[in-house]
Amino acid sequence: MHVDEDSHDIELEVNHEARIKEAVGRWIDDVCGTDPADHDWTSEGEGGLDENPGVWSLGGTKLLTREHCTRCGLCREETHAGSQRNPGEAAVSVRYELPAPSDEDDQSGADPSDDGDGDSPPAPGS
Ligand SMILES: [Zn+2]
Fold it and tell me: Are 18 and 29 in contact (CB under 8 A)?
């Protein structure tokens, strides 16, 4: 049973600025901005299909696209449900993720994998 915390988000419009703010959090000063247009998106090095770099087929009409900003490193992942999407399923869902600054994660072996079930709230403070 998968519970999507964004299940209310079935509008076609995606609030990219809110998603970016959520992703960058405390590193907000290090990124280009919260408007997707402020970033320099590229799918270079993301892998994906030969004919469509940065694009993966998820079966049926579903596609996943991955890009990152060449300046600040913010990652954008979009899932396109396509014409065969389920009733109530968002046509496009987008996720932004800013990798932690590389000069801080060298000695940490911990990798808090994101299982997406929302039962691990961020630690307060720090
Ligand atoms: Zn950027």
Answer: no
Residue 17 host element (H or E): helix 16-24
User: What is the whole-number distance in angstroms between the Cα of residue 84 and the centre of ligand 1?
Assistant: 32
Other CB atoms within 10 A of residue 68 CB:
23
Distance between Cα 88 and ligand 1 center (Å): 32
pTM of the entire predicted model: 0.59
Q: d(Cα 63, Cα 79) in Å, to the nearest integer? A: 6
Q: How many angstroms from the chain centroid is the CA of residue 102? A: 18
Within 13 Å and on the Cβ side, how many CA atoms surround 102? 3
Ligand 1 centroid–CA 14 distance in Å is: 18
pLDDT tens track for 82-114: 988 888 888 999 999 988 766 654 554 445 555
Separation of CA 98 and ligand 1 centre (Å): 10
